[in-house]
Amino acid sequence: MNVESRRTEQPSLKAGDYVAAAEKIVRQILEESPRQSAAHQPDHLFRVRDRAISLAGQFEKDEGRRVDLEILALAALLHDIDEPFDDKEGHVMRSVGRASEILVKIGYPHERAEKVMSVIAEHSSETPSQATSDESLVLFDADKLDGVGAIGIARTLVFCGQQGMPPPMAIEWYEQKIAKAAPLLRTKAGRSLAMKQAEFVLAFIQRFKEEESKFVS
After folding, report:
1. Is 64 left (phi over 0), alpha (psi -120 to 50) or beta?
2. Would the CA dihedral through 172, 93, 194, 1 be positive or negative?
3. Angle (CA) 183 185 189, round 5°
4. pLDDT tens, residue by residue, 39-90
5. Can you name the residues that pair with 84 across neighbouring β-strands?
6. pTM, to two decimals
7. Chain centroid offset of residue 99 CA
8. CA atoms 25, 80, 45, 162: torsion sign
């Protein structure tokens, strides 16, 4: 990922240095966080970062506006940095607080760190808020796209399993989650991709219900 040429300001270090430093810390923190949700491990954060960068390119073509890829990448890496499997509700503000500490640790410029934290604060469908930046629009959709398709199904099942939900309850939770998040998608490209990935999810859910009905009276 090359974000160096896309920065709107000139921090004291190269963009890649900040992003690489944050990525290293993310790995260290989550390796030492036994309560972190299995669905919100480094693989999720790195996928969302990559999805967001890709989505930003299409967003710029659709909207004719530039996205700050450094801020977007950092927000993606840190957006779920503190999400225990048994305390999801408060994860947004906890992640904002932990992100602030990490950004200070890597020496990220204060004004830009404030922008990163604003993007993180606006990423969740559990506490939907009005997006205040294009980076927020893109991260929101990139995060939701990691919740649909085959990866989304797998993440849902491991997350619900950690909370002791049996499969039928997990599927019900997933349906409610999708129904809540789908209308909130914020970019044209995000909505288009979500519709394609959701086809697989809906087919899976239908097949699950058909099989379950054969054995449950």
Report:
1. left
2. negative
3. 130
4. 999 999 999 999 999 999 999 999 999 999 999 999 999 999 999 988 777 7
5. 36
6. 0.89
7. 14
8. positive
Give exposure, 17-45, as e/b (b: 16+ Cβ within 10 Å): ebbebbbebbeebbeeeeebbebbbbebb
CA-nearest of 1, 101, 112, 98 to 40 is 98
